Amino acid sequence: MKKVFGFGPVVIGLVASLSAVLSPSDVVGTTRAVGSVDVPTVAVFRVESFGVGRSGAVVGAVHAVNRVEGGTVLYWSAALQVDPTTTNSSCLFGIHGGPVDGLALVVPQASAVYAPLVLANGEYAASDPKEVAWSTSGRMLVGYAVFPELPPDVSEVYVRIGYLHQMADRPVPVGDGPLEPTVDKVPVELGAGWPVIPQASLLKGADPAAHTFPLYYQTGTDDDAVATVESSTEVLTTFAADVLFAKDSADLSDEAASALAMVGSDLKDRGTGVVVVTGHTDSDGTDAYNMDLSRRRAQAVADALVPLSGKNVTFEVVAKGETEPIAPNSTPEGQQKNRRVTVEYEVAK
Amino acid sequence: MRTGLAALVVAVVVTLCGCTTGGASGDSASTGLVKGDPLTAEQYYQAVVSAVPDPNAVPLASGEGRSYHVDVLSVHARPDSTLVTFAMSLAGNGEASGDVVSLRGGGGNLKTISLVDPASGTTISPALFDPENPGGPLGPVAGLDCACSAIVYLDQVTVVTAWMGPLPTGTKTVTVRVPTVPDIENVPVTWNP
User: Fold this and answer.
1) Which residue has the higher pLDDT, B45 or B91?
2) pTM score
3) Of A259, A236, A339, nearest to A294 (Cα)?
């Protein structure tokens, strides 16, 4: 036993040495004791600072995204990066869109985006901005936000954070339970403990559906002829009319066949219900002419898709003429974007 | 004997490290985290500073148009998603209104940027959601929020990020398209498990 105690100073020295030679970038993926608590780190982020002088940046860490009763809690911390030219404080949240501006969990496994819950009393289930928004150089403050419950099969999420809507640098594994120990005093400094999250009974009073959004993926072709926005339940494909049709014509071009074949194949594989085909024009020409041209073009696309699409779908043709531009008609580029035919349909789950 | 002492020291170090915490935390074990050395709050802060993206790092590729200078810092691809990090700043003749800048056609964020796989011609852009219409039908793209950075100030080099769907499997390089900036070609892609 005496020998063991004899090694005590050596051991303490070794521990101190190990701490001093920290390899900086390996903090992510570790749990380290800071002060009196364990501090897990699963991702980091950098947001340019926003304050008087706008000098330096806010740096921060994502500590955990854990399932709790009634929701999913995100723990994060941030501080203004030390900049010798300024002593400004910096704002990470709360200026533009409220206390949780920009916070979101992006979850590809659920094809959904989750925003912080709003409790029955109208307050966000998140740290009060007055407690965490204003950090100072090198002083990391801890915040939290509670999101709707994640589906049980979700194992990782991406975190969007800060008024700049920055994405943290890597996917975050989903864990379980609130972090402990908790501290009631705010602001919560890193190493002192973790913020107290609302009780489960309060979280269950929130409406998770109001804070859960389908995630839409944007894909397209290199020549911008076809652009698709797709969720797990629906698809919206936009064809550039200049690819499908000659000027002022509703006769499909040779190039149209391959572009429409892709959608026809997808409709046959996954399509269900009513397929809505909508024609749009730019603002050249009269309203009546454009309405008629958009109708004829939408009808031509629908007619081409019917034999490609199988029997699980039916078609509806809609004419919008020049009434719904998506770009200014004041430039040739904008007019080109406005000349389009869209095909929207639901997909079987 | 030396081996025995070394093992004893290691064992005691491990024990001491394991006893430095004041309370149980959430289920970090299930998330695969490694137990690291204790840090002071200042050391932890410095570690985070060192780990975040550096806007002055050597870029993978760069481009500059009439409004912006763009450095592509990383393109990390996974089977279900792609995460891109840029450092952006105003170009010399940037179109600015005071300090506030909007990407042309981009509504002030990165949702209209895209990555092009030159082999297949497939393009991907940041994923979208509709904060005004939870669970509802797909709205007009212009009104949608995105899993990407907003751009407010570019009077300094600003790190911004964009999250997208997956690239075609095996894509080795991409062309990065940012509105008003010439195509940035041959940007290498890092595939992560």
Assistant:
1) B45
2) 0.84
3) A339
